[in-house]
Target: DUF3016 domain-containing protein
Amino acid sequence: MRRRLAGGWAGFAVTVLLPLAGPAAAQVQAQVVQAQVAEAPIVQAQVHVRYADPDRFTDAENRFGSGQPLRVTLAELTRIFRDLGTARLRPDERLDIIVLDVDLAGFERPGFATPTGLRVVTDATPPRIRLAYVLHRGGRIVAQGEDTVTDINFLLTSNPRFSTGSLYYERQLLRDWFARRFPELAGRR
Model:
């Protein structure tokens, strides 16, 4: 009789032992089930993002319908911050970010070749995100500050053809900021 009672390697051992050992397998099976320890849930770093007066941001909303509305842009930025934070920070750390201003790459050109307008990206219009952050580890503040994150060479350092999703210039900008701001954590994961 083959039955699998436990998951993982313990379950494999029970499955192999039952056909080979007969009645002795029941005794081993009971020991394996009793010795099995519940796996601890995977703990990830926490990233909390808030936006200070997003209606007054320099350029986070596509006013002429050439792209995403403000709420979609902020949701995507939140997702980018959380993805980068959980990938780079330790599980016992919490990063609080307050976004103070957003200026997306490019500028809107209303009525240019389309009825809804177009976002034109040039090297003269880099993305810029102003933010304040606090990094907590074990309940203590280990780093804090306010940064204006921008890169005038953003067209040379990121390639939107190989990026998925929107805000690819901003994603690359924030990826570089995380690498510079938290360098000791680069090889952690």
